[in-house]
Specification:
Elements lengths: L3 E9 L12 E10 L4 E7 L4 E2 L7 E2 L3 H18 L5 E6 H10 L3 E5 L1 H12 L12 E5 L1 H8 L7 H19 L4 H11 L4 E2 L3 H14 L7 E5 L5 E5 L5 E5 L1 H13 L8
Parallel strand pairs: 1-6, 3-10
Antiparallel strand pairs: 1-2, 2-3, 4-5, 6-9, 7-8, 11-12
Helix pairs in contact: 2-4
Length: about 270
């Protein structure tokens, strides 16, 4: 569908300003932007999914980035999930923190367990950048938002990727009432911190659509892949534990989620 732009969102695990080739994709998502209907759909891909890797044994999808960068991760998503994605945006830990700080922080509703986890992290934070928080709605700075987005020990990695999407929704909420001049200034501040293969022309076209995407009442539809009923615990030939997936079933689920049809053509 020419009205739909699918962008692979990658969060890699460097703790420096620079990107490097040995990073892993700690977070893998696909954001689908419909420029006609101005809807946003976002899926998270569980990083422990076992996928075929050229010249290697099956491995976690998170490791495809280390083996072949964004190009291999995108190719893996296309091959396994039959999803049309040719563009990517990559951030690392520092870019994530600075990006959240650039928009003035975000509002997140914390559970008691999440607040306790963050406060424990704050007690051991030598930089003193992690805030002390309470359960309920809290306004988080970039470092605290990163701590929140990486929580998994209190529940699971599946809940962690839900938190990552919660951060993206909170960031959208934070800027949705901004005028085009403010949005352009934010883009000028944030874009140098990310890595992407979007062209300048593509970025310009999408920026013109941003106010419509951020209109009052807009909300992002979201889900996690694989679904619970289409995956199972698996062990690779080298003994690595991974998530086995019915790729055909999940490809169909994604076509229905993104396009509302079985064949990937918008109705």
């Amino acid at each position: 569908d020419n009205n739909v732009v699918n962008i692979l969102l990658l969060g890699t695990d460097e703790r420096t300003d620079e990107f490097n080739e040995n990073a892993r994709a700690d977070s893998i998502m696909v954001m689908s932007l419909n420029t006609k209907e101005h809807t946003i759909k976002l899926i998270s891909i569980e990083r422990g999914i076992g996928v075929p890797v050229p010249g290697r044994n099956d491995d976690w999808i998170t490791h495809t980035f280390r083996y072949g960068g964004a190009a291999l991760t995108m190719q893996t998503v296309r091959d396994c999930f039959k999803l049309d994605v040719e563009r990517y945006v990559r951030v690392n830990f520092n870019a994530f923190k600075e990006g959240i700080s650039a928009i003035g922080g975000i509002d997140i509703e914390l559970t008691p367990a999440e607040a306790e986890y963050i406060n424990n992290a704050a007690r051991h934070d030598s930089s003193k950048e992690i805030q002390r928080v309470s359960a309920g709605q809290q306004h988080l700075n970039g470092t605290t938002a990163l701590t929140y987005a990486r929580i998994r020990k209190i529940d699971s990695d599946w809940k962690r990727i839900e938190r990552q999407r919660t951060v993206i929704q909170a960031a959208i909420n934070q800027v949705k009432n901004s005028d085009i001049f403010t949005l352009n200034a934010l883009a000028d501040a944030i874009l140098p911190m990310v890595q992407t293969n979007l062209t300048k022309a593509e970025i310009t076209r999408l920026m013109l659509e941003v106010p419509a995407f951020l209109s009052e009442g807009s909300k992002m539809e979201q889900m996690t892949i694989p679904t619970y009923e289409t995956c199972w615990n698996s062990v690779g030939v080298d003994g690595r534990k991974m998530i086995g997936v019915d790729f055909e079933a999940n490809a169909q689920i994604l076509r229905e989620f993104f396009y509302g049809t079985h064949d990937g053509i918008s109705e």
